[in-house]
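Hey team,

Filing this mostly as a record. A colleague (T.K.) asked me to run one chain through the structure pipeline before their review meeting, and I want the input and output archived in the tracker in case anyone asks later how it was produced. No errors, nothing strange. Just documentation.

Input sequence:
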Amino acid sequence: MLADLGLHNLLCHHRHRPWAIWAARKRLIISLLGNVVLIAALVVTYVALGSFDYTDIFAKAVALREQSEANSMLVAVIGGLFVLAAMTKSAQFPFHSWLPDTMEAPTPVSALMHAGIINAGGFLVIRLSPLVVLSPACLSMLAIVGAITALLGGVVMPSQTSVKRSLAFSTIAQMGFMMLQCGLGGFSAALLHIVAHSLYKAHAFLSSGSVLEQAARTQLTQAHARGGRAVLVTDIFAVGGAVLILGLALACFGIKITEKPGGIVLGFVLLLALTNLLSTCFATRVWNLSGLGIAAAVVVAFAYFASFELIDHLLAATMSRQHLARSPLDLAVNVVAIACFVAIFIVQNFIQSFSHLRWVQVFYVHANIGFYLDIPFRRLTGWIYGQPAAVS
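Output structure:
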């Protein structure tokens, strides 16, 4: 609660900007909604389990779940409340719209919010993972919502003309991927993602003012490269190189992705990321840059798995090692997750090649304003404050 109030004051720093005040109010409403759910989760936890100690909660939840079907449902409700609270704190769909709307705050405030505060929901789920994994329904909800959030952020991000709003939708996509990792049971991977994303996004916001010209030149270069006849050939080479690098990294670390929670989906996403990196470099048809791309892909793959093994080892005592219960929705969750990231890959890599088509232009317009998904909370904000729009 105190963090919410402190952040609210920071977001209202420019009090002469009506939209800054309006966006801060909307964020406060969503955050307070999350606080209500979190308090409800704490109350139900204490009533049902009689403790706030992590060790006691996890042990008693397992025992309670095994007693009867009704108690199993109670444990699922507790986990669901914590998951719902985490969704509001980490800007998951449909509670995401406050994040890009608060970009009129000073840039250091944005860096603080995106590198630190936004991770609260993900850390909550990771810390309570021994409780959350007791409910397959909660995990499925996390994975599906996370995949949809990642898709939304990844599709809307390229359509933004503001650097800070583009970074905000990037954060939404990253937080969605992090929640997807939690939903698939990859809690170590999710924590690694939080740390890496925090470092990257703090730097990105604090340096956003000095990269405008560089970003414009990069986009023009990529658009020209993606429009050539050699696109298909470079993409084939990129996929082959990504498969080779990923396989080599897995072999070196002795990791079998089929034995890791969510390993198939997360491995596929990493494969898409490496393919994107390589295809961007190969498309320039500059040998030096292509070589640097290959070296970067190798470093990324090996650094990722090395960091994953380190975090997995260091935090083994605080995260769930339980065998995940199979859910009837497992197949659907995996299909939805893979489909979402394939869609993101296609939009971010090929949409410029078809920008002349009418339906692509219409899609771009709707994506630019977030597909109108912020309207419900915008109306709620107007109703609560008696101010239907951001005015002076």
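Quick notes for T.K.: The chain has 18 helices and no strands. The two ends are 28 Å apart (CA to CA).
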